[in-house]
Design a protein that fits this description.
The chain is of the alpha/beta class. It folds into two domains: 179 residues, P-loop containing nucleotide triphosphate hydrolases (Rossmann fold, 3-Layer(aba) Sandwich), CATH 3.40.50; 108 residues, Orthogonal Bundle (Helicase, Ruva Protein, domain 3), CATH 1.10.8.80. Helix content is 48%, strand content 15%. It contains 14 helices and eleven strands. Strands 2-5-8-1-9 form a five-stranded parallel beta sheet. Strands 3-4 form a two-stranded antiparallel sheet. Strand 3 and strand 4 form a beta hairpin. Helix 1 packs across helix 3, helix 11 packs across helix 12 and helix 12 runs antiparallel to helix 14. The chain is globular and about 70 Å long. The two termini are 39 Å apart.
């Protein structure tokens, strides 16, 4: 894919992404927003946190994506007795050959797509081992640092119902996730299609349509998406509106938000928006793109106070008001 920025390059990138979505649709019924968000995180170089009850297809989604992209996939089931070495790997004694030597045995983190299932069931020490690898893209064992192969995406899941005996992620660690996606129940029509596929005799198998090099090329094209000053200003204004101590803060922020989004929120709005713009066939970021990704990017980056919980406010209701106010202000300007 040469001549980055050309119409042909744009169309090729869009077609490649559409082919991936078609393969995923063979297995996953509905959940279009979830599929779109996971692809955005993969191309933006970030990680995604999925929250939803069991049985909604979170594991199947990442396994299908790995098959369609010919990427290495691994799954880590988080439990209270899971140790950091169970994730990143450990030194083992190699008895092959002459004498005994220490050799590093890579853990399941050494994959392109890593499913961290029920991440909040592991202890903070184990959680931090995973999150360090997510942030640095490296694993250090002794004095040796091992690079993780790109692309590298961690999709962590957590169950919002069974919170007893869990270790919720601290806010500073939540901030390392590019997006937090809420996985909802399927509709009646989607449930009919799920059951119909279940009773079919032939199981659908996704076809590999892209490989690692293709993904890295599409990533490079995403970085060429232009960001106009007024769109960048909109993203920054949205983040500042979540910070109650700022003069740009929304009234709901001053009343209900204890801590607003970090600067990573503004970076994520722009990066995720650029990928979405490319998916929509454009080489420029629009305010509508930022609005579309805003809830997923910011919902885990704001901390509500007691009054918010008392009055029945949620990150969703507050962010909807902030986005609406920011959009109205932009229209007036």
């Amino acid at each position: 894919m040469k001549n980055v920025g050309s119409e042909a390059t744009l169309q090729l990138a869009v077609e490649r992404l559409n082919s991936v979505r078609r393969e995923i649709a063979k297995i996953i019924v509905g959940q279009d927003d979830v599929v779109e968000s996971v692809l955005i995180c993969l191309l933006a170089g970030g990680h995604v946190l999925l929250e939803g009850v069991p049985g909604l297809g979170k594991t199947t989604l990442l396994r299908t994506l790995a098959r369609a992209l010919q990427l290495k996939y691994s799954r880590i089931q988080f439990t209270p007795d899971l140790m950091p070495a169970d994730i990143v790997g450990s030194m083992i004694i190699d008895t092959e050959g002459h004498g005994k030597t220490l050799r590093f045995q890579p853990g399941p983190i050494f994959a392109n797509l890593v499913l961290a299932d029920e991440i909040n069931r592991a202890t903070p020490k184990t959680q931090s081992a995973l999150l360090e690898a997510m942030q640095e893209r490296t694993v250090t064992s002794g004095t040796t640092t091992h690079e993780l192969e790109m692309p590298f995406l961690v999709m962590a899941t957590q169950n919002p119902i069974e919170m007893e005996g869990t270790y919720p992620l601290p806010e500073a660690q939540l901030d390392r996730f590019l997006m937090k996606i809420l996985v909802t129940y399927p509709t009646r029509e989607e449930l009919h299609r799920i059951v119909e596929r279940t009773i079919q005799r032939e199981e659908m198998v996704p076809v590999a349509v892209l490989d690692r090099d293709d993904i890295m090329e599409v990533r490079a094209v995403c970085r060429e998406v232009l960001v106009a000053p007024h769109v960048q200003e909109y993203a920054i204004h949205l983040v500042m509106a979540t910070q109650p101590e700022q003069k740009e803060a929304h009234e709901l922020s001053k009343k209900y938000i204890r801590y607003g989004s970090s600067p990573r929120g503004a970076q994520a709005l722009v990066e995720c928006g650029r990928v979405l713009a490319l998916m929509r066939g454009r080489f420029h970021l629009s305010i509508e793109d930022v609005q579309h990704v805003a809830a997923a990017v910011l919902r885990h980056r704001i901390i509500l106070n007691f009054d918010a919980h008392h009055d029945g406010q949620t990150p969703e209701t507050i962010l909807q008001a902030l986005i609406k106010a920011a959009t109205a202000q932009t229209s007036v300007a």
